[in-house]
Write a structure and sequence with these properties.
Blueprint (H helix, E strand, L loop, with lengths): L6 H185 L8
């Protein structure tokens, strides 16, 4: 059997033991509470860490997608720039050819215009000369016609005058001959005993 405890001193020792036990339990409880709190905090931290990792992974994926998209865009931009550069060079070459062709056509047209203008000037001068010569020839012909008309008029007047003189001379001569013939006929009628006044 265990030895009996003394009442006086035993109560004090028991009370001290209970206080120590309480303190120990309280400390243990506080420790367990702290442990639980730390566990909760750790769990929260883990959860936050997982979320952070998930967000980080998601953002890394997004960044990777963005970088890939940017590379694709850069490749597309390079292809577009290359195509635009090619089109620009082609357009510039075509434009240069068109400008050269237009300049050649302009030069040829300018030369043709100058030649036509020179020919037109020559034609105008030739026409003026021909009109002048024609007018001069017309004036010459008019003068010749006027001169011929005057000459024909003079000749006609002279001919008419000469014809008039001839007619007058012929009339005088025919009058004389008529008088002689009448006298002769009268004489013959008288010889036959006829009166000329009754015939």
């Amino acid at each position: 059997m265990p030895p009996k405890k003394k009442k006086g001193k035993g109560k004090k020792k028991g009370k001290k033991k209970d206080d120590a036990q309480l303190q120990l339990e309280d400390k243990y409880k506080r420790t367990m509470d702290e442990i639980e709190a730390l566990k909760d905090h750790l769990a929260t931290r883990k959860q936050l860490s997982r979320k952070a990792n998930m967000h980080s992974t998601e953002w890394k994926k997004r960044m990777s997608d963005v970088e890939l998209e940017m590379r694709d865009q850069q490749d597309d931009q390079k292809a577009i720039n290359a195509d635009m550069t090619r089109q620009y060079k082609t357009m510039q070459t075509d434009m240069g050819l068109k400008i050269h062709t237009l300049e050649s056509e302009l030069q040829r047209t300018t030369q043709q215009l100058r030649r036509v203008e020179a020919e037109l000037t020559i034609t105008v001068e030739e026409k003026k000369r021909m009109n002048f010569e024609k007018d001069r020839e017309i004036e010459k012909l008019k003068h010749n016609i006027y001169t011929m008309e005057k000459e024909y008029e003079r000749i006609l007047l002279e001919a008419l005058g000469s014809l008039g003189d001839k007619i007058d001379k012929a009339r005088i001569s025919w009058g004389d001959q008529s008088t002689m013939i009448q006298a002769k006929n009268k004489h013959i009628l008288l010889e036959f005993g006829l009166n000329p006044l009754y015939i």
